[in-house]
Amino acid sequence: MSKPIPTELNLRRQSRVLEVTFDDGARFALPCEYLRVHSPSAEVQGHSPDERVLQIGKEDVNIERIEPVGNYAVLLHFDDGHHTGIYSWETLHDLGVNHDRYWSEYLQKLEATGHRRAAGAAAGQPRRARLLYFAYLAQYLRRESEEVTLPPEVTDVSTLLAWLRRRERERGYLLADDKVRVTVNRQFTEPFTHIDDGDEIAVVPTSPTPPPKPPRAAPELDG
User: What is the pTM of this model?
Assistant: First the structure.
């Protein structure tokens, strides 16, 4: 069985995401931080599993340059000076397919060391974003756009939507993960796409008609 080969690589510097499309139809949006902490270089991986070096403080890392390596890989030049990781097509595909598991394991290792990821370069400082609502969302939420201060727990698209659902309360069902698509700076995203200070974020319904309002849970009766 032939190994998947990328047909397109797009670096989104503003949102710090490398989008990779493969000839098997798979498409992944890989955050620069994720790629950096999972660099295949000996500097990170060591020469055995016991020699792996946990990468800390890479929340704001970006890719400066992508250098082709033959017809089988790319060398990613990160803005923290790291440029020894050669990412083969097989490695990129593996990082995309297993993103959720690898990322969860990385966060568990960070937690075990007592390290907590910062929300971004301006950690500890207010982060602002402009939200745009389209189609029926503008009607139901009674606004087409707004400027918001992002709470510390909002670091990516997934946590942004969760926060908006809590904030909107009875209208939160309109913002379910499977009912909307999100763009950051006019680029479609994945749930783990990073949110930065100053981002323009559009929330677009996946259907022209709003979903039905879920029924309220019936109260429990004693006896």
Answer: 0.60
Same domain, 11 and 103: yes
Q: Is residue 46 part of a domain?
A: yes
How would you class 135 by CB atoms within 10 Å of its CB: exposed for 0-12, middle for 13-18, buried for 19 or more?
middle
Beta pairing partners, 30: 18
Q: Please identify every stretch of the chain with a pLDDT value under 50, giving residue numbers as ranges.
A: 121-124
Contact 55, 37 (CB under 8 A): yes
Q: What is the CATH classification number for the domain harbouring 193? A: 3.10.20.30
Residue 95: closest CA among 185, 160, 183, 6:
6
Domains of the chain: total: 2
Angle between helices 89-97 and 99-112 in degrees, nearest 10: 80
In angstroms, the CA 144 to CA 137 distance is 8
Q: What does the block give as tokens for 177?
A: 């993960």
Are the C-beta atoms of 42 and 49 separated by less than 8 Å?
A: no
Do 59 and 95 sit in the same domain of this protein? yes
Q: Locate 50 and state its tokens.
A: 């016991």
Q: Which residues contact 60 (CB under 8 A, 6 or more apart)?
A: 16, 33, 118, 120, 121
Write down the H helix ranges in the chain: 32-37, 42-45, 89-97, 99-112, 136-141, 157-168
Q: Which pLDDT does position 156 carry in this prediction?
A: 86
* Side chain identity, residue 47: H
